[in-house]
UniProtKB/TrEMBL annotation:
Any Pfam family matching the protein: Carboxyl_trans
Domain of life: Bacteria
Descriptive protein name: Methylmalonyl-CoA carboxyltransferase
Annotated source species: Streptomyces spororaveus
Residues covered by the CoA carboxyltransferase N-terminal domain: 27-283
Annotated InterPro entries: AccD/PCCB, AcCoA_carboxyl_beta, ClpP/crotonase-like_dom_sf, COA_CT_C, COA_CT_N
Domain CoA carboxyltransferase C-terminal: 291-534
SUPFAM superfamilies referenced in this protein's UniProt entry, alphabetically: ClpP/crotonase (SSF52096)
PROSITE patterns (alphabetical): COA_CT_CTER, COA_CT_NTER
Length: 540
């Protein structure tokens, strides 16, 4: 008996305007069955299930894959996979694909692997067969040296399959870690992602979320209320804005799936396929030697006056275009991918418009992970410095600012990619050292003529160094101002660090872009070997 009941074999299978293959009747029957079966698999479990997905404001898994890949071109593997579980009625529900679609296709002409949960089948819940499909595509991505994108829209572990479902997650986590720093891993949360399922996105390089339809949490609102008495909605607990602005779990948040997937495509265009390749270069129409005189107006000479560092980045990079990571979280530091003369660079910059650009617990973590990512995937680092120090406070000290700040220090010291530091204005204390100073391995350090590099600001330094003199003076205020002036002239003039070889050159701000382009060209073939070791013990 045919595996497809009432299968039409010729006219209904082969449209009138399509040439009927010249094959024996028995093969014709098999080809007809295959064509019908594929059509049913692509259609999904039922029109009602598709309508329900659309009613939630969500696309189906296949619609998402069409948007992700060039022209919707996608090669699917294991579409006929079905679970083998029994009990709890599962033996009567053996849908093809088992709730996840896996395969590969081109994104901007380069191969990318993907898996997409199909919420219409078992709510996208993960069972044994479902997990094995994801394991296979992750292994294929690693073997091929190509990025993998997970389109997550699932209800967690398939409860009816018990511990085998949990073991399936373990296999995913193991591969996430094994592939970390080897191939880019991107998670796109497009529906629920709860319980153990949330740990896989947390292990990947980037997490995208969609407002209103995606949520991530370990324990849901009902459990939280039962245990702690706290009442909260799913979106407030684990929605896109909660994770983009509060927890820092999500790197990007968008209003709709179409925009989200287009931005995933753009991010992939900036990343290499694997850690053995350089990021893809593109021809640039923005002159490499273009002057950046607008920076003279953007950045005030007064070190206490705020400005938006994004305007500086926009002036320096190709066509003013950058892709900021974690834009809504830890605002006092900016991390962004951009191009300089067509070459991809990672930019880490203090943001004087937020907390005066200080480093705190969150900004240290944010910058540290970004530096590690750039180093893993051969992306040169440009660090724009205007930092007054680490944020003081009891909460910061008790929250572990020492170990969190050490993460950023560790990341820079461990990075072997080309590293260029530009000091725009102030660079005080330990924060100066941590922001990729020459002393921790920056290849090139440049400074603007108004830079101030010192242990601390002149006012604070005078209070410490000249405390007795000021206290004993007839006019302490006048004496204090005089001593502050002397301290600045002696230790904080723009050429103090340059005289001691800690700054390679003091440059005209209008030359910033051209000097960066030139330095990156010189360092492109940089080859630094770390000591042989299993791995370092990064601060936690």
């Amino acid at each position: 008996m045919s595996i497809i009941e009432d299968s039409p074999l010729t006219a209904a299978v082969w449209p009138q305007d399509e040439e009927v293959p010249d094959a024996p009747p028995q093969m014709m029957r098999r080809l007809g069955e295959l064509k019908v079966l594929r059509a049913r698999i692509h259609a999904g479990p039922s029109p009602k299930a598709t309508e329900a997905q659309h009613a939630k404001g969500k696309l189906t898994a296949r619609e998402r894959l069409e948007l992700l890949f060039d022209g919707g071109e996608f090669t699917e593997v294991e579409p006929f996979r079905r679970h083998r579980a029994t009990g709890f009625g599962l033996e009567d529900k053996r849908h093809y694909t088992d709730g996840v679609i896996v395969g590969w296709g081109p994104v901007h002409g380069r191969t990318v692997f993907a898996y997409a949960h199909d919420f219409r089948v078992f709510g996208g819940a993960l069972g044994e067969a479902h997990a094995q499909k994801i394991h296979k595509i992750m292994d294929l991505a690693a073997s091929a040296g190509a990025p993998i994108v997970g389109l997550c829209d699932g209800a967690g572990a398939r409860i009816q399959e018990g511990v085998t479902a949990l073991a399936g997650y373990g296999g995913i986590f193991q591969r996430n870690v094994r592939n970390s720093g080897v191939i880019p891993q991107i998670s796109v949360i497009m529906g629920p992602c709860a319980g153990g399922a949330a740990y896989s996105p947390a292990l990947t390089d980037f997490v995208f979320m969609v407002r209103g339809t995606s949520q991530m949490f370990i324990t849901g609102p009902d459990v939280i209320q039962a245990v702690t008495g706290e009442a909260i909605s799913q979106d407030a607990l684990g929605g896109a804005d909660a994770h983009a602005a509060t927890s820092g779990v999500a790197h990007f948040a968008y209003d709709d799936e179409e925009t989200c997937l287009e931005e995933v495509r753009f991010l992939l265009s900036l990343l290499p396929s694997n850690n053995r390749e350089l990021p893809p270069a593109t021809p640039s129409s923005d002159p490499a030697g273009r002057r950046t005189d607008a920076l003279l107006d953007i950045v005030p000479v007064d070190a206490n006056q705020a400005y938006d560092m994004r305007a500086v980045i926009e002036e320096i990079v190709d066509d003013g275009e950058s892709f900021e990571v974690h834009q809504e979280w830890a605002h006092s530091v900016i991390c962004a991918l951009a191009r300089l003369d067509g070459q991809v660079v990672g930019i880490v910059a203090n943001q004087p418009a937020a907390l005066a650009g200080v480093l705190d617990i969150k900004s240290s973590e944010k910058a540290a992970r970004f530096v590690q990512l750039c180093d893993a995937f051969n992306i040169p680092l440009v660090t724009l410095v205007d930092v007054p120090g680490f944020l003081p406070g009891v909460d910061q000290e008790h929250g572990g600012i020492i170990r969190h700040g050490a993460k950023l220090l560790y990341a820079y010291c461990n990075a072997t990619v080309p590293r260029i530091q530009v000091i725009l204005r102030k660079a005080y204390g330990g924060a100066y050292i941590v922001m990729d100073s020459r002393s921790i391995g920056a290849d090139i350090s440049l400074a603007w003529p108004a830079n101030e590099i010192a242990v601390m600001g002149a006012e604070a330094a005078a209070n410490v160094v000249f405390r007795r003199q000021i206290a004993q003076a007839e006019d302490p205020a006048v004496t204090r101002q005089q001593l502050v002036k002397e301290y600045k002239a002696e230790l904080m003039h723009p050429y103090y660090a340059a005289e001691r070889g800690l700054v390679d050159d003091v440059i005209d701000p209008g030359e910033t872009r051209s000097r960066l382009v030139d330095a990156l060209a010189v360092l492109r073939r940089k080859d630094t070997q770390l000591p042989r070791r299993k791995h370092g013990n990064q601060p936690q």
